[in-house]
Amino acid sequence: MRAILGDSLAVLFGSIPAVFYLLFQDGLPEGQSLGKKGVNSRVINASSGRPCGFGESFVRNISLLILTWVDWIFIFGERRQRLGDKLANTVVVKTN
């Protein structure tokens, strides 16, 4: 019984930071998650060109958690934006 409880707590406390990072990763400095830094891209506000903030990151990524693969269908549109990008008014761009 103790082992099951311990394993459950480990999963819970491991999952919380992972979900938090998933939701807010694009609000890190310059709109770059760790992965986006690695592939030289970042998320910006489509209107102002400023880097994505934490609020925009939450909006663009919560749709990914809720709608999963359906969210990705939208990348075939004119601006190649996921549904989350459309909702948050963001776009992913390449960096130098």
Could you describe the 3D structure shown?
This protein is mainly alpha-helical. The protein has one domain. A two-stranded antiparallel ribbon has the order 1-2. It is elongated, with a radius of gyration of 16 Å.
List the helices and strands and how they pair.
Layout (H helix, E strand, L loop, with lengths): L1 H23 L9 H5 L2 E5 L8 H14 L1 H4 L10 H6 L1 E5 L2
Antiparallel strand pairs: 1-2
Number of helices: 5
Count of extended strands? 2
What gross morphology would you assign? elongated
The residue fraction in helices comes out at 40-55%
Structural class: mainly alpha
- How much strand? 5-15%
Number of domains: 1
State the strand order across the main sheet: 1-2
| Sequence of secondary-structure elements | HHEHHHE
Rg of Cα set: 16 Å
- Major pleated sheet: 2 strands, antiparallel
Residue runs with pLDDT of under 50 for 5 or more positions: none
Distance between the termini: 54 Å
Overall pLDDT score: 89
Question: In a nutshell, what does this entry contain?
Answer:
It is built from five helices and two strands; from the N terminus they run ααβαααβ. It has 96 residues and is mainly α.
